[in-house]
Specification:
The complex is a heterodimer of chains A (252) and B (205). Chain A is of the alpha/beta class and 252 residues long. Chain A is built from ten helices and twelve strands. The two termini of chain A are 13 Å apart. The chains are: A alpha/beta (252), B alpha/beta (205).
């Protein structure tokens, strides 16, 4: 049976891992290469690298780190951050990424999704969406969750899948960094709308949050988290064992 | 020397890296002479069957691969490279494959009696059936490997060496006919299990 995936997310700036709370107040942690190897050894099913570098020097450091990681870690790697063009896809795929996640770049130019899917295949294009409730509606936010685009999120995701996005990352700004569990209400709305794999992001604080996510919305395929793993609050090995005990299919 | 066939289809970075950590002597090449000279051949591939089959044909690699396979050279097809080993695919039309393993390639959705997400993406476990093929000598039944595909091989019962459960159906995970082996999953993305499969391929005579 297909397993539920556990995906640590590494936000990388100038070659170092960082994690923000509600996207502000970033704090640096450690070497992404070491962390990636560690996670892979502990049973992570996949890794996501978000490049939050602003400078071109930092971007070069990022591709070096990515190459180094991909040479040593043999689980799927997804890269996001600063992906605005097919050249950006090429840049990270040639360094060992397997999937590329688009966010603000696709909001600025939605055709990017279809263009990339045509060249690299649907399986390569991940649409990552930062969503926040505004007056009772789900709005898409851009630029790392700072700018309300006013776009209705579920429609945006549907259009993305129609254009060729092969997977969706749903990042709830409302629950991100709060550590009180994933945004199951929001995830249900996304799962109702599309039939491609859906990855939950934002809100994991304890082991039970992962259990309730997959129990309450079994259509979710994967759970992404950062700080709970980076700070060792949850060990992936322990998490997967507990998931298995709760009859959630995992790779052990 | 193992030749990893480069015909402009898919990302070969991980495959190269996997063989590198195994210490295998490989070359990534589209050059016919080098493929001809290699002891083993890996046929990778991601994307659409029709495009990939056309590229192989345009480069004259189809005849070369068929010839080398008939000589008994070990050949490993991965993902789309595996599907290309079969007779035919019905992915957006009808396309001829290399015909090295008998069977055809059809949409996964045709097989499933439950509603499932397509592509079949993620980690799924291997069932070996009655006998364990030498390519799996370092791994165990039930081990997990990483899949990403929307089409799969059918009508190839005699060649199936591993299957996986998805949507209430047994999906062909790996098939073999004599020296020709195909994996639907990505060994180069399947962690330690995948590396062990590639190691066994490296050791095949």
């Amino acid at each position: 049976m297909l397993t539920k995936r556990i995906i640590p997310c590494l936000d990388v700036r100038d070659g170092l891992v960082v994690k923000g709370v509600n996207f502000t107040g970033l704090k640096e942690i450690s070497s992404p290469v070491e962390l990636a190897k560690h996670y892979s050894d502990c049973g992570a099913d996949e890794l996501v690298f978000y490049d939050i570098t602003a400078s071109s020097d930092g971007r070069k450091l990022f591709t070096e780190i990515l190459t180094e990681t991909a040479k040593n870690v043999f689980i799927p790697l997804t890269v996001g951050g600063g992906i605005n063009s097919l050249n950006d896809f090429e840049r990270v795929l040639s360094c060992g990424a397997d999937k590329v996640s688009v966010n603000t770049g696709a909001i600025a130019r939605p055709e990017l999704i279809g263009e990339a899917a045509k060249v690299y295949g649907d399986q390569c294009v991940v649409l990552s969406v930062d969503i926040k409730r505004v007056d009772g509606a789900f709005h898409v936010f851009a630029k790392g969750g700072r700018v309300d685009t006013g776009i209705e999120a579920i429609g945006w995701i549907k259009r993305g899948v129609d254009s060729g996005a092969g997977e969706i990352v749903v990042n709830s700004i409302d629950t991100d960094g709060v550590k009180r569990g994933y945004d199951i209400e929001m995830l249900k709305c996304v799962c109702d709308a599309v039939s491609v794999p859906v990855i939950a992001s934002g809100g994991a604080g304890k082991t039970e949050d992962f259990i309730s996510l997959f129990k309450e919305e079994p259509r979710v395929d994967a759970a992404l988290a950062a700080s709970v793993f980076h700070f060792g609050e949850i060990e992936i090995k322990d998490l997967k064992r507990i998931m298995k005990n709760n009859n959630i299919c995992v790779r052990i | 020397m193992i030749a990893v066939v480069d015909y402009g289809v898919g990302n070969l970075f991980s495959l190269k890296s996997s063989f590198a950590v195994l210490g295998a002597d490989i070359c990534v090449t589209g050059d016919k002479e080098r493929i001809f000279a290699a002891e083993k051949i890996v046929l990778p591939g991601v994307g659409a069957f029709g495009d990939a089959a056309k590229k192989l044909k345009d480069e004259g690699l189809d005849a070369l691969l068929i010839g080398e396979a008939k000589k008994g050279k070990p050949i490993l097809g991965i993902c789309l490279g595996m599907q290309l080993l079969f007779d035919k695919s019905f992915e957006y039309g009808t396309h001829d494959g290399l015909g090295l393993i008998s069977g055809t390639v059809r949409p996964i959705a045709d097989l499933c009696d439950q509603e499932v997400k397509i592509p079949h993406m993620g980690w799924n476990s291997l069932d070996f059936g009655e006998t364990k093929h030498p390519i799996f000598k370092y791994i165990n039944e039930g081990d997990f490997v990483y899949f990403v595909h929307s089409f799969c091989a059918v009508n190839c019962e005699k060649s199936v060496i591993a299957s996986t459960r998805y949507g209430g159906a047994d999906i062909t995970a790996a098939a073999a006919f004599e020296n020709v082996i195909g994996c639907q999953f990505h060994p180069e993305k399947s962690g330690e299990t995948g590396l062990k499969i590639l190691k066994a391929f490296c050791e095949m005579e």
